[in-house]
Design goal:
Mean pLDDT: 75
Order of helices and strands: EEEHHHHHEE
Helix content: 25-40%
Structural class: alpha+beta
Number of domains: 2
Shape: globular
Number of helices: 5
Low-confidence stretches: none
Number of strands: 5
Distance between the termini: 25 Å
Radius of gyration: 18 Å
Length: 140
């Protein structure tokens, strides 16, 4: 399955061999045509739908490449300053944790768990493959 990013009405889909940039309305057309969310399509199925529907792939700009590179860095690896800057840029509001939230977070079994080295997704302690990106985990 591809790594996906939806930003400003454009969806980026990154497969192992190719990257695709599509307008959000075209993504909706593909999903209606295939009956499957775009992020769950194989590259072969995506290309077939694009051809069948006559959808034009958009050209990647240097700004797109920078955005993708920055977005692929797992949030857990960002400094607080970089995280706050990204939240501001994306219009994400910072929320304070309530005492109840803090208690739930502290009791979470994943708090001290492992994370996928590829996408940053939390992993269960016995996971062999990442649930999000499918990459084999480093079983340390």
């Amino acid at each position: 399955m591809p790594w996906t990013l939806l930003m400003g009405g454009v969806m980026y889909l990154l497969y192992d061999s190719m990257a695709y940039k599509l307008y959000e309305p075209d993504v909706g057309r593909i999903e209606r045509d295939t009956g499957t969310p775009v992020r769950d399509l194989s590259e072969e199925d995506l290309v077939a739908a694009i051809k069948r529907l006559g959808i034009q792939r958009l050209e990647f700009t240097p700004a797109d490449q920078t955005l993708i590179a920055q977005s692929q860095q797992p949030v857990r690896d960002l400094t607080e300053k970089d995280l706050l800057a990204a939240m501001k840029r994306l219009g994400i509001q910072r929320l304070e944790l309530s005492p109840e939230d803090t208690a739930v977070t502290a009791a979470s079994p994943r708090r001290a768990g492992r994370y996928c080295g590829s996408c940053g997704h939390p992993l269960s302690l016995d996971a062999v493959y990442c649930e999000r990106c499918g990459r084999k985990t480093d079983r340390r």
